[in-house]
């Protein structure tokens, strides 16, 4: 178990497969379908929305609640319109693990027949004890208690997890829309094939022991698959997670780590950057430590697999 811490072609395959299997009676045969025959899906971010589109093609109508790199998902607050959108959905895809409580709390609350896909629960990154701890921390957070994660909930950076999510989405869409079940399964298999290609690329990077320091743990699973070990001071992770200022002693420890030759890479989350994490980024660059920027959501006009390809390409260049 790991530490708890192109898409154009795919989309074309998905859409053509669905078009071949679709019939004019789809909407009538599926009580879950909307008036135009499309299933209504709501996701936390555009990352999961793109995954749904890859599997569902033109048979799904997907609405991500967050679709901009200018928005920090950790601090997002759902609107009344969001709640109405979620209520009308046939299927909701959440990340889980306390990342998107604004959606996990709404999913199924006003629509008991709603199907919910939870990426964290589908992954093999966490034990049953870990999942119970997450639920406990979520409860503490809801009651206003101090909340610092002891795990990495950014599971969309784990390609194996995303393959599992794609398979589950295909299964659930097939149950909601049996006429197109085979097409959903085929599209999920196509996605998994593309993801396997990226995993092979990551394995090629994993040729020697390397360490990284992260301003926020978003890219942790991807870096782990590339053979990196996490050398981030725990006090830095705790401060960023709790949205607190980084203590001067911790900031100095980070700078010392970046200059003593023990770190091969800085992972920088530009979507949650603060003046202090930006200072760390600038210091790393000046110290000659390669820095790679990552985000929580998709860059504009980019699909999930293309995004991961770019992330891996940037990682390869950084350690070349």
TrEMBL record:
One of its GO terms (biological process) is cell adhesion. One of its GO terms (cellular component) is cell envelope. Keywords: Metal-binding, Signal, Transport. InterPro entries: AdhesinB (IPR006129), Bact_metal-bind_prot9 (IPR050492), Lipoprotein_PsaA-like (IPR006128), ZnuA-like (IPR006127). GO terms for molecular function: metal ion binding. It comes from the Bacteria. It is found in: Cell envelope. The keyword RNA-binding does not apply. Residues 1-19 form the signal peptide. Belongs to the bacterial solute-binding protein 9 family. This is ABC transporter substrate-binding protein.
